[in-house]
Design a protein that fits this description.
The complex is a heterodimer. By secondary structure, chain A is α+β, with helices and mostly antiparallel strands. Chain A contains 4 helices and 4 strands; from the N terminus they run βαααβββα. Helices cover 39% and strands 20% of the residues of chain A. By secondary structure, chain B is an alpha/beta fold. Chain B contains 20 helices and 15 strands. In chain B, a hairpin with a 5-residue loop joins strand 6 and strand 7. Classes of the chains: A alpha+beta, B alpha/beta. The interface between A and B is medium-sized, with 23 and 31 residues.
């Protein structure tokens, strides 16, 4: 059975990039190879959330299979990707 | 040393951004006293004891941002607005660059070695066998360190097969290469200005954010708002700090209001040529070695602690000095702002009348965010050619980069070596150089391990910055390994 890959977009707009988003780009270092093989990860232009008042101060943002998450850290990204991969396996 | 991006640095950038936003709307004075509450809302899950202490620390950070020397001017009764007013009326003196926040200091206990309960009380007892001061005894079947005797050499820690020995450091004291930071009678952090070389390692390692640099950011923002011509002199380390090419960063700088942007690599070329010429002469006249002179923290180190090396330093001025000269020729009316990764540069710049202010990359980042500038969306400036005669000198920002730039301009074959980061041990070695010369004629010295790319004012992990500097697109940078040397170096060799 072929699993559908989890699509991860890391915002590399300046606001996200300078608030710790740059560290997320080291995903090859901190993601388990197993998880890595289940994902398609890339940097994406500004996803626009930083411009919305409700999300002010929540950079950096990451979009996982269409859902946007704020205040992302490497630790949280690992957890969310694991959840997304597990959900896809069911 | 802490990671570049941690919860403290991220909030620090947020504070800078909020202050700048308020400034650009023209309402800083009236809103500044409410900013700590806006930044630390009541429902925040605090990292300090409570949100109120966090707000107090935000207040201090804003004071440092206004250029206040917190050690001298810590008046709880004064409003931030009055500090804002004061900073407009009379610009604060630049010295001292680093200031401490006593209420933020955790008064960490003195450095100690301790035996944890992982000690198995083994038969071989390598800790006792290796302790040079007989500071370890056995009490109730377990090793015990006598603080009075322990000289903190760490031998027991190295040899324990159960990793039962731990070293508990005082992070700021451990990071300071020149013993300039210690606790005062009340147990709070204090910097010895006579010894301090302004490398900024302490401010980067304090996990409580109790050591801050006094900023010139608002003065710069004020210049940008006015009619005055302002030239940005960008340090070579800037490439890779933002999600775009060097060209896009330059466009971004113009978008925030700098009238011109000049690369300090241009001045670095003069430094490198000077040093290449000088090392040739020195080798001919039989002098054993010469060190580089571009790292301002190293220059202060020699002046204050290793005076024997004074004559061994290159006579070349720093890239910043040459660039400032170029700029004042080209733009005689303009104010010059140096933008770099370095705190020691603030001290160096204070002695150069042409330069008005120095800000760091992290402060520039806040300027971009406050002004809604997305570097990734910036156009490539067609006026700026990526390949210049000085392109290879952009590598001044990286360990070995200075020495290599000098080598490429040198006619005689010379040996080089690199001091990649200054710590206590390197300083001890440096002190012996006049008796026993290093095994090279040209010694490149950089105070920060990893070069300027790992300086106290950077905001991107050097691993990512290196890849971006090689021209990798930021969207795919995560998948690209670091290959060879920087593109500028290869281009220059062609």
């Amino acid at each position: 059975m072929v699993h559908k890959k989890v699509v991860v977009k890391i915002c590399v707009g300046t606001a996200c990039f300078v608030q710790g988003g740059a560290d997320l780009l080291l995903y090859e270092d901190f993601l388990d190879p197993d998880l890595l093989s289940m994902c398609e990860i890339e940097g994406s232009s500004c996803i626009g959330r930083c411009k919305l008042d409700d999300f002010e101060g929540k950079a950096p943002f990451v979009e996982i299979d269409g859902t946007v998450f704020g205040q992302m850290t490497p630790k949280r990204l690992i957890q969310l990707i694991r959840e997304a991969v597990n959900a896809g396996n069911k | 040393m802490l990671e570049i991006n941690n919860q403290y640095t991220v909030i620090k950038r947020k504070i800078d951004t909020e202050v700048l936003k308020a400034f650009f709307t023209g309402r800083l004075e009236e809103s500044v006293d409410r900013l700590p509450i806006k930044i630390i809302p009541r429902d925040r899950d605090p990292n300090r004891c409570c949100v109120y202490k966090e707000r107090a620390m935000v207040r201090y950070r804003i004071m440092a941002l206004l250029g206040v020397d917190i050690e001298q001017e810590d008046d709880d009764y004064r409003s931030l607005a009055s500090y804002v007013k004061q900073s407009w009326e009379s610009p604060m003196p630049v010295f001292p660059t680093l200031t401490t926040i006593a209420p933020g200091c955790s008064s960490c206990p003195d450095e100690q070695y301790r035996i944890t309960d992982s000690c198995r009380g083994c038969f071989a007892r390598p800790c006792i066998a290796n302790c040079p001061k007989e500071a370890i005894r056995f009490v109730n079947g377990r090793a015990f360190i006598d603080d009075q005797r322990c000289i903190k050499c760490g031998k027991c820690l190295d040899v324990c097969p159960f990793h039962a020995v731990i070293q508990v450091p005082v992070p700021c004291e451990q990071a300071c290469p020149v013993d300039a930071i210690h606790k005062n009678d009340q147990g709070f952090v204090e910097i010895d200005r006579e010894k301090c070389i302004n490398c900024g390692h302490c401010s980067r390692s304090c996990p409580f954010g109790a050591i801050v640099e006094r900023s010139s950011l608002l003065q710069v923002a004020d210049m940008l708002k006015g009619e005055q011509e302002v030239v940005a002199m960008i340090a070579p380390a800037i490439e890779g700090q933002f999600p775009g090419s060097l060209n896009q960063i330059i466009s971004g700088l113009k978008a925030v209001g700098f009238s011109e942007v000049v690369e300090v690599a241009e001045g670095a070329q003069i430094t490198a040529s000077h040093e290449a010429h000088e090392i040739g002469e020195r080798v001919e006249s039989g002098l054993p070695f010469m060190t580089t002179s571009c790292c301002p923290a190293y220059m202060q180190l020699v002046d204050k602690h290793v005076t024997t090396l004074s004559d061994y330093r290159s006579q070349a001025r720093s890239p910043m000095v040459y660039t400032a000269e170029l700029c004042s020729d080209r733009y005689p009316q303009a104010k010059l702002v140096f933008i770099g990764p370095c705190l020691a540069k603030k001290v160096e710049a204070a002695s150069i009348p042409e330069i008005s202010s120095v800000i760091t990359f992290t402060e520039l980042a806040s300027l971009f965010v406050a002004r809604d500038i997305d570097i990734r969306e910036m156009p490539e400036d067609p006026m700026v050619s990526p390949e210049q005669i000085f392109s290879d000198c952009r590598e001044f920002a990286v360990t070995q980069g200075v020495a290599n730039s000098v080598l490429r301009r040198c006619d005689v074959p010379i040996q080089t070596m690199h001091i990649n980061g200054i710590d206590r041990k390197t300083i001890r070695i440096m002190k012996t150089w006049t008796r026993k010369s290093p095994d090279a004629q040209l010694v490149e010295v950089m105070c920060c391990e990893g070069g300027c790319l790992a300086g106290p004012g950077v905001l991107v992990n050097p691993k990512i910055a290196h890849r971006l500097r090689q021209g990798v697109d930021v969207a795919t940078v995560g998948t690209r390994p670091i290959v060879g040397r920087g593109k500028h170096v290869q281009a220059a060799g062609d």
